[in-house]
């Protein structure tokens, strides 16, 4: 084969691998930074760096490993640039007692089929244990907790425990030694133990929200306080991102306790000018969340309102993280409420 032909073949291989790995690389960047906007920028940066440097790839590692190396270093560069503004707002010891987005205000939800595939590698199809591991490490609380780690410990933990890669492959990706990877992972696990309050390998993200969602939707849409109260954990906490779900401030706000939650929701559920509301289940962070649309009394048009990620314990909703309607289009959600039984788009826009 001639030189130009060989180069063309390598470019085609890179193009195909980028297309195949893009959802997984996007998820890796999201787990690293906890923010969908930043993750999309970093995924694009990864592709640009790969195209600019494709001639330097010598095949000493797999093409997939090389792409993760580029993505990881793009994330490390990003975290270095934003070190001051991307610091958790509570000490690690307080993390279990506050909502995730209070501790990590830049936190955003994530939805993509890659959540179920992220632990797979190019060499083998992901098995059930991979999908379980991927779902747990993309749960909102876990992603928030990871933000407490120093950047290099963070990427080492996500490669080793999130993707279940062998140490030597993690070392290739980070361009360091296996001993250095082992040390970083051990320190990261110790830090995560402090943040989560338990060993990371024993951490329980909580029960799946799916079984509760239809009943929760019916209770909210019917504005039935008694029914809502039965679905809420006694220690329920609700948080709102800036300008999300009725929060008209530039700061994350939160409140807790069943009575306080019902009082806080009364204006949108019970006042004379309370809007109509429709809720639908959506895929968020490896679980089921809720998207909501509202329509003012007498109005003809629906408006996107909020996204809610739910955390469940003991069969009740323990935490509700509320995010703004600006994410609807980004997550492939329609601007008007779909009919019940609608299936969410699998690829964000």
Automatic annotation (TrEMBL):
Positions of the RNA polymerase sigma-70 region domain: 22-84
Family matches, as SUPFAM superfamilies: NTF2-like (SSF54427), Sigma2 domain of RNA polymerase sigma factors (SSF88946), Sigma3 and sigma4 domains of RNA polymerase sigma factors (SSF88659)
Highest taxon, organism lineage: Bacteria
EC number: 2.7.7.6
Assigned keywords, A-Z: Nucleotidyltransferase, Sigma factor, Transcription, Transcription regulation, Transferase
Pfam families: Sigma70_r2, Sigma70_r4_2
The RNA polymerase sigma factor 70 region 4 type domain, residue ranges: 144-192
Coiled coil (UniProt feature): none
Annotated InterPro entries: NTF2-like_dom_sf, RNA_pol_sigma-70-like, RNA_pol_sigma-70_dom, RNA_pol_sigma70_r2, RNA_pol_sigma70_r4_t2, RNA_pol_sigma_r2, RNA_pol_sigma_r3/r4-like, WH-like_DNA-bd_sf
GO terms assigned for molecular function: DNA-directed RNA polymerase activity
Top-tier EC class: transferase
Similarity comment: family membership: Belongs to the sigma-70 factor family. ECF subfamily.
Subunit-structure text: Interacts transiently with the RNA polymerase catalytic core formed by RpoA, RpoB, RpoC and RpoZ (2 alpha, 1 beta, 1 beta' and 1 omega subunit) to form the RNA polymerase holoenzyme that can initiate transcription.
Entry protein name: RNA polymerase subunit sigma-70
Organism annotation: Georgenia deserti
Native organism taxonomy: Bacteria, Bacillati, Actinomycetota, Actinomycetes, Micrococcales
């Amino acid at each position: 084969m001639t030189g130009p032909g060989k180069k063309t073949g390598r470019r085609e291989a890179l193009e195909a691998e980028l297309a195949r790995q893009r959802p997984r690389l996007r998820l890796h960047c999201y787990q690293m930074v906890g923010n969908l906007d930043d993750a999309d920028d970093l995924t694009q940066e990864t592709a640009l760096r790969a195209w600019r440097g494709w001639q330097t790839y010598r095949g000493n590692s797999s093409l997939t490993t090389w792409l993760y190396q580029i993505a990881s270093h793009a994330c490390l560069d990003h975290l270095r640039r934003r070190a001051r503004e991307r610091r958790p707002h509570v000490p690690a010891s307080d993390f279990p007692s506050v909502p995730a987005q209070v501790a990590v205000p830049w936190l955003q939800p994530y939805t993509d089929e890659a959540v179920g595939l992220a632990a797979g590698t190019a060499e083998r199809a992901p098995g059930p244990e991979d999908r379980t591991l991927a779902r747990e490490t993309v749960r909102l609380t876990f992603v928030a907790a990871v933000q407490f780690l120093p950047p290099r410990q963070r990427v080492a933990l996500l490669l080793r425990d999130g993707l279940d890669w062998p140490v030597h492959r993690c070392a290739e990706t980070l361009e360091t030694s296996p001993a250095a990877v082992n040390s970083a992972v051990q320190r990261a696990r110790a830090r995560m133990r402090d943040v989560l309050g338990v060993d990371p390998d024993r951490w329980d993200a909580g029960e799946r929200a799916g079984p509760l969602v239809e009943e929760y939707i019916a209770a909210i849409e019917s504005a039935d306080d008694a029914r809502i109260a039965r679905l809420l954990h006694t220690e329920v906490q609700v948080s709102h991102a800036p300008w999300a779900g009725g929060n008209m401030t530039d700061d994350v706000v939160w409140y807790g306790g069943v009575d306080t939650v019902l009082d806080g929701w009364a204006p949108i559920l019970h006042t004379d000018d309370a809007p109509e509301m429709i809720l639908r289940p959506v895929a968020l962070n490896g679980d089921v969340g809720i998207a909501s649309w509202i329509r003012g009394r007498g109005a003809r048009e629906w408006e996107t309102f909020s996204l809610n990620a739910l955390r469940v314990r003991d069969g009740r909703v323990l935490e509700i993280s509320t995010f703004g309607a600006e994410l609807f289009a980004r997550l492939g959600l329609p601007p008007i409420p779909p009919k019940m039984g609608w299936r969410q788009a699998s690829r964000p826009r």
